[in-house]
Each structure stands twice: as structure tokens, then as C-alpha cells.
């Protein structure tokens, strides 16, 4: 966890005249994003290779970050900084050797779409893509194909067709609103979506997937948004922290605002090579999440998406990490490690195997300390 001092951004030359009411305004953060090589080159000293990465990716994948997210970087000269690695393009994103076994849409989200913008994979829940805009573009994005599209929200007509489908399919109990980042939309659009979904009786849960808590937490200082969460009382928030440096002393205070509206806050982490693929980093992240009252939900194996696979770890790394966490960390802090299968076949959990042997009447288990225990089967 990082502790940010009052007016800490003023230590950066470019923001020395930015007042607190501006810095802590989510719209200021979005309006003042860094969106191109030109925007960032005076702020960060980029080497030739990084410069080249910008040039060769700029017409393929968007670049973008909020000032707040940039300000969390502890050492700008450290090429391995976990935040820099999540926002700066790399030449590996389009290198055919690095991108072997990768696909634009491995989970057939667009193909398994009964109505444009909706993906209906599991009977009881649908994915609702509300916009393709994000205030920060993660280099490891699983919907990186959308970077090829214009940054825009869907139209009211598209939303209406999506509501219509959900209304007609009564087995759907949950709508997962994602994007892009749905909380970058203006409150009026968010209310339009929530109001319409709230009126469909068979919807019990509205899950919002957003990274704003990580990259623009001031979004949740907006009382009008908090009132919407309070009023449309089916909302759960799932966010996306990947590293302890992303959690600050502000995070906990802001989570409290969200929780006060009756909205649970959960987190999904992606296991990323060179960013968080070691036991200690994940343990610290899970501890900091718990301190902030955010429940770890999933730890994902990095998806086989074009432009992303250079972040992949060995698939068994996640199991090793879970094995390390079990017994050492509160069960509240242990996420489910999941792999999304290609062709839209769904997510599967991977767990360490605690069964050593099955005998006729007994099972031999091992505990987290590798002690063997024999138990009768029935
Ligand atoms: C991941 C996903 C969900 C949600 O799955 P959970 O296991 O409930 O988190 C729903 N629909 C699609 C298409 C998904 O990819």
C-alpha cells in the first residue's frame, strides 16, 4: 500500500499548480489524460525501444492513462515498475514470435452474442458491454480487440435492444456490466442502464466491472453516482487491482463510501509476468485488499489474446501461489484461480490437490504444511 501525502501531486512539475478540487475531481482526471506519445514524452524519459513501441502500436492499440494512475509510479526510471508495465506499449505486442497462440476474440464474445453488445454464455447471467472507452488502457486487456474500434458508448437504441433480450429471457438472473469501463460513462447514462435493468423483475444482481477505483478513485467522490448505487439496490462492484502499489491510503476511505450504499466490493487480479507473478507480491496485494475491505474474488490466468500473451506465466504458477497462500493468509483473502477456456467454453477453477491417495475405505489428505492425514471415506 502506498501512503499519499496531502497535495502530493504538486511535487511533479506539470501538476504543481493543480488545486485539490481539480485533482480530486474524476472529470478533471479524465479530461487531463495522457493519450499519445506526444503527451507523455516530456513527462517520462523514454528510450529508443519504448519510443519504437509507441510508433508501431499507435494505430493498433490505444494508449491512455489518468494523471492519478501515473502519479502512483514510485520510480520512473525503473523499467520494471508494475504500473509502468501495465500502461506503456511494448514492441512484443505485435511481434509474431511473442504473440504465438493468440487470438483477437478467443472466447467468441462477439460470436456468442444474441444482440450486439451482449454475450450470453452461462444460462443465468449475461455480459453487457456498455462502452468501449476506458480512462486507462491496460496493456494486458482481454478485450484488446476493442482497441481497434472508436472510443464510444453504445447508443440508446442498442441498449434498448439489449434490455429487450434480457426481459424476454427469464432464466437470466444477473447482468454483468462491463466495457470498456462503464463507470467512465456520465451518470445519466449509468442511470438509464440501471433503471431499465432494475425494472426487470427476474434480475437479482447487477454486477459492474470497473477499474475506476484503481485508476480514478475520485469517481466515487461523486455523490450522484453513490446515490444511484443506493437507489438501484442490486449493484455489486468488481474492480481490478493487480499490485500493492495501486492501493493507497485513499482507497480504504473511498471503498467506505461505496460500502455505505450497500454495494459489496470485490476484486479480480490477472496474473502477469514480471508484474505480480510471485507469492510475496500476491500475498501483500490480498492483505492490502482485505485491509481496504475489498474481497478477492478471482485470480485469472492471463488470456490468450492478441497483443497480450507476452504477459503470460506458466499456467501452474497460479496454483503454486494459492498453495503458498493457504494456511498463511486468512481464507477471506484467498481468490479462486481461474482459467477461461477458449471458444467460449467457460471459466474453470484450478486448485492445489490436497488428496494424496484414495484407498478402499480411506482417503489420505495432506494439509498446508504437507502433513499427511488419513480419514475414513464415509
Ligand atoms: C466471466 C464471465 C461471466 C461471469 O462469470 P462468473 O464466474 O460468474 O464471474 C459471465 N459471462 C461471461 C461471458 C463471462 O466471460
Number of domains: 2
Looking at the structure, the CATH topology of the largest domain is TIM Barrel
CATH superfamily of the largest domain, called what?
A: Aldolase class I
Give the low-pLDDT segments: none
Give the overall form: globular
Number of strands: 12
CATH class of the largest domain: Alpha Beta
* Range of strand content: 15-25%
Per DSSP, the total helix count is 13
Largest sheet: 9 strands, mixed
What does this structure look like?
This protein has 378 residues and is of the alpha/beta class. It folds into two domains: 8-93, no CATH class; 118-349, TIM Barrel, CATH 3.20.20. 28% of the residues lie in helices and 16% in strands. It has helices at 20-23, 26-31, 37-40, 48-57, 67-71, 82-87, 156-168, 187-198, 212-215, 223-231, 249-259, 279-291, 317-325; strands spanning 118-122, 125-129, 174-178, 205-209, 235-239, 265-270, 295-300, 336-341, 346-349, 355-358, 362-366, 372-376. The strands form two sheets. A nine-stranded mixed beta sheet has the order 1-2-3-4-5-6-7-8-9. Strands 10-11-12 form a three-stranded antiparallel beta sheet, with no helix packed on it. The longest helix has 13 residues, at 156-168. The radius of gyration is 21 Å and the shape is globular.
